[in-house]
Amino acid sequence: MKRLMIKTLVAAAALAVAGVAAAQDKTFKLALQNPKGHPLVTGAEKFAELVAAKSGGRLKVNLFPGGTLGGDAQAVSASQGGTIEMVMLNSGILASQVKDFEIYDFPFMFANSREADAVVDGPFGQKLHGKLAEKNLIGLAYFELGFRNITNSKKPINMVEDIAGLKLRVIPNAINVDWVKALGANPTPMAFPEVYAALEQKAIDAQENPLNVILANKFYEVQKHLALTNHQYNPQSLIVSKKVWDGLAEGDRKVLQDAALEASKFQRKLSRDASATTLDALKKAGMQVTELSAAEQNELRTKLKPVIDKHGAAIPATVAELQAELAKIRAAK
């Protein structure tokens, strides 16, 4: 009887300890590359607010914008080790972990944001995020960076051939290097926190990013010309360290997942609502804006098609799956 009582007390104590552990306050670091005021950071702030609200204040997300915890590659590595709990980054950069993510950097993959939303929120996007677990990362939701455009300090870009010869910073991965080469420009892979200084010091001539990134990072101070090319759409993945995730109670995981999905919808709308005023702000800041004609836009697509074909051959099943998904979306218009 005495032994039974001791066993019961030990079991009760163990349950109590487990309950306390599950209810403990937790704080997560979230690394981002863009500065405060950018729609991604505002979306991350919304995520932090929702996490706090849904957990009754027990869970807290501290934001580290502006690349203060290092570039994307450094932050991902730290997240895999559990020292940075969360990272928000261009989904295509995750190709260094899972090759299939390279498809998010294919030029002209999405015709508009509606297509992009349907893909990333649907089975295709979730399947790709699911593949990150084997790399000690968990994908929570897709936010939006947007459609990319080219800026430079040398000359206006009215034709595709005007891009040739520019020393152009790219996200450090193979497909971005290849499409810049295909246009006759000189690709310079570089971590995002280094870009402004490189432009200012004339180490590079050009960079390419969505309008809100150009504005938030004040690239207009060191770049005179903006060409509206819309050549690539970037979803952003909010990821969490699997080491951290595995240590969370199921209820806490749900809080993070639900908050991420809700914040991603909020952030995308915010980003799109701001796009018109962002372009006006860049013009007022002194940027000279050009837009490729329909014929030149077709020329751009033609020059980039071999790059898409080359990289698509390395992930044929993923390309076929995405194309089938896009065909369904376009047929349902």
UniProtKB/TrEMBL annotation:
Tagged with keyword Transport: yes
Biological process terms in GO annotation: transmembrane transport
InterPro entries tied to this protein: DctP_fam, TRAP_DctP, TRAP_DctP_sf
Keywords, ordered alphabetically: Signal, Transport
Pfam families associated with the record: DctP
Leader sequence residues: 1-23
UniProt keyword annotation of Signal present: yes
GO cellular component: outer membrane-bounded periplasmic space
Transmembrane segments: none
Homology family: Belongs to the bacterial solute-binding protein 7 family.
Protein name as annotated: TRAP dicarboxylate transporter subunit Dctp
Organism per entry: Sphaerotilus natans subsp. natans DSM 6575
